[in-house]
Amino acid sequence: MDTxxxxxxxxxxxxxAANAHALEAVDELLWNRTLRAEPERxxxxxxxxxxxxxxxxxxAEVPIESLRSDAADSSPMGAxxxxxxxxxxxxxxxxxxxxxxxxxxxxxxxLAAAAPGGVQGQPRQGEEVVxxxxxxxxxxxxxxxxxxxxxxxxxxxxxxxxxxxVAGIAHAELASAQPFERGSGLIARAASRAVMQQRGLDxxxxxxPEAGLRALGRPKYVAAIRDYAAGSREGAVQWLVLHAQCVxxxxxxxxxxxx
Length: 259
What we know:
Blueprint lengths: L2 H7 L3 H18 L2 H5 L1 H20 L5 H5 L7 H15 L2 H6 L1 H14 L30 H14 L5 H15 L6 H15 L10 H8 L1 H12 L3 H26 L1
Helix pairs in contact: 2-14, 4-6, 4-11, 4-12, 6-8, 9-10, 10-11, 10-13, 10-14, 12-14, 13-14
């Protein structure tokens, strides 16, 4: 999605209102005295909780304490959850502002290492994808280079656009195009967090937007991504409003959990 079209979407009145609410919730979190007194602890706990929420949302449900102690079992669910946490731990938010495709490749390489047999760090060449949420949407492999280049341009050249909404577009583009054979959803949700951090909305990564998605629930999320993938302006607006709402809820839950 090009920058001009994103600029039109973020001016929609419903998107503007949702964005303002999300900013208010995140700003309130950033002024939390408990978190400000222990910023490193807050960042580490947010990262752990966000990775756990992301993995469980995908179906890799393991006790969060098993991730904290690096004691998740070696089952497919345990391996996915562990790999998700490792991916979160190595994400460099600043790289999303300089070389977002490199950042995505690094994220995918870690996830792919947990599932031998796939190509690590590269977009898929065929039409087969692992689709645990049954989104049943994806871009043809031949279109992926152009889609990813368009996303990269958005992430590196749209400093004036709202961080929440740029993160929302990045999330929806990755989740709907499914550029990798497996793990696209996990990467999409982690990338959303990283983009908001890189753009200064939540520089220390205290907020947990993934918790907002868990509160939303899988059925509504799947419907929203499908509507976005359909390509209508209405579907894109509805997704951006929903994404902003999840950011707000995630910030509020972070204040309660981390504070």
